[in-house]
Amino acid sequence: MRRAAMLSAIVLTGAVSIGVSAQQDFSTVQIRAEQVAPGLAVLFGSGGNIGLFHGPDGTIIVDDQFAPLTEKIQAAIAAEGATPVKFLINTHLHGDHSGGNENFGKAGATIFAQSNVRSRLAEGGTQRGTVRPPAPHAALPVVTYDHGITFHANGDTVDVRYFGGGHTDGDSVIRWRKANAIHTGDMFNNSGGFPFIDTENGGNALRLVTSLDQVIALADADTVIIPGHGPITRRGELIAWRDMIAASVERVEALKKQGMTLEQAQAAKPVEGLRTAADGGDAFVAGIWTSLAAHGR
Amino acid sequence: MRRAALLSGIVIAGAVSIGVAAQDFANVEIRAVPIKPGVSALFGSGGNIGVSHGPDGTFIVDDQFAPLAPKIQAAIAGLGASPVKFLVNTHWHFDHAGGNEPFGKAGATIIAQTRVRDRLAAGGTVAGNTSPPGPKEALPVVTYDHSVSFHLNGDTIDVIHTGGGHTDGDSVIYWRKANVLHTGDMMMNRVGFPFIDLSSGGNVVNLINSLDQMIAMTDADTVVIPGHGELGTRADLIAWRGMIAACVDKVKALKTAGQTLDQAKAAKPLAGMSNAPGGFVSEDAFVESIWASLQARGS
Questions:
Q1: Residue B172: helix, strand or coil by DSSP?
Q2: B140: which chain A residues are within 8 Å (Cβ-Cβ)?
Q3: Residue B251's pLDDT is what?
Q4: Which CATH superfamily is domain A20-240 in?
Q5: Diameter over CA atoms, chain A
């Protein structure tokens, strides 16, 4: 029973990630808040986990899920005692993390993101072959950075850092120095499956490993890790995730060096058993394959 | 008459720069100079202010002195602009960031390079003028080490720390579409030698490096808003950089020849080099700051 529920959750997450938002029914989605530290909470709903940071200097959120959920998210924010959102940070461009941008932008939030996030949102593109139209003006980040910025608010110092991406080419990590918490964006997906390497949007498994090394270096045993999806956890799980990806890269690269084609490598199921996935990890193997090729390997 | 007015302007700039605390702001008028549609410069007392305004909100660069905030706000409204949403400090000096508290309290989000916030929070003394630790509302809320860009009012506005020189936290602001560059105090237009604030991490060698990067960002059509002085061009920026580099070369030659600082000053190596004789930084003071900059670089 427990296993069935978990698999169901994985399938749901998968559906969200590939962006079938048009068909998805958001009417039954509930936003649940879990406090991490005074003034810092995580909102779980449908789509990427939202970091909510509030206090006398205003409300800052990390990611905003899907547009149809904005009102529920705003209600959940108010229920935490927070004022309307002043600053909104996108960890990356995907619609399950930035889908609410237009609504929050129109409501007065200033949107921040890494430079590549804005470029991709503004230009549109594809994701898993599905066309992603250009985002409207109000949905676009107003302040962008190549490397990082830091917020000084609500008694904490909040670092927003780009380590080179991996899930896409615009992933930011958010770290609360005093609260000792890190929002990883989708560079860490703690919902049971393999990572999605969005090679159509600059993602790369090798860079994901090096970015994760930098995230791990910021954390200690007490750091609260807020993943892009799935439950809050600690550094140990993040390290295990990083090691799983590094091991997968090694296995796939070994097959590639043997002269296999991608199809042959997928058929060999090199990552099977490392995580649970309906496709046995085929998409992940393909993501690694493309990543290796991008590095001339 | 024209020359007298110019000199008077220099003297005022000098007085501002060295921070005469008893300065009377009652007579200061804020003069707005439109540069491009939605981009203007405001001249008053203290550092020149850059303004971007339009449908996405008002963005300003620097804010002079706190007592001038109401006049500056009136001048911004006079441009047809909404109240300030974003305020960038080019550096931490009181004649550029002195209005942070009133603008912060009025709702502006203040953005600056990391060391600007550190210095504003700690307070300090610049050319004999002591600034106490800044109150919370005067401190930048968003900081960066390298750069940020604002996408506003149909333009992209890059805010870049090129490595400093006047201090260790100087940013330059470049409007890509309007082709306007605000240099902060890394350029002062025809008001004499540069002020190198060594106590705030300034260094003339870094200043030259930063100016090289600014020159590379500009073309013949770029409008340059200097930290002090009137609007300029790329040619002014190149001439300013050339003057500074020539001064450094002259002082460096004496230092390399084994002279002491006193001997170097006595040799008057910078005689005739200033673009505005009588400016706030004397020949001797500039020799000293070049000397200290070279020492700090181990040369």
A1: strand
A2: 152
A3: 98
A4: Ribonuclease Z/Hydroxyacylglutathione hydrolase-like (3.60.15.10)
A5: 60
Question: Does A110 contact chain B (CB < 8 Å)?
Answer: yes
Residues B102-106: what's their mean pLDDT?
98
| pLDDT range class, residue A5, cuts 50, 70, 90 | very low
| A149 neighbourhood in chain B, CB within 8 Å | 142-144, 148
Cβ-defined contact of A142 to B139 (cutoff 8 Å)? no
Which residues from chain A sit within 8 angstroms of residue B150, using beta carbons?
A: 142-143
B145 interfacial to chain A (CB closer than 8 Å): yes
Q: pLDDT (tens digit, 9 = 90+) per residue, A88-114?
A: 999 999 999 999 999 999 999 999 999
Please state the ipTM of this predicted complex: 0.91
**Which of 3.20.20.150, 3.60.15.10, 2.30.30.100, 3.30.930.10 is the CATH number of B2-245?**
3.60.15.10
- B112 and A CB contact within 8 Å: no
Side chain identity at B162, as an amino acid letter? T
Measured CA distances, A156 to A2, A59, A95, A176, A257 (Å): 39, 12, 29, 7, 48
- pLDDT value at position A23? 61
Task: Please tell me if residue A141 touches chain B, with a CB cutoff of 8 Å.
Answer: yes
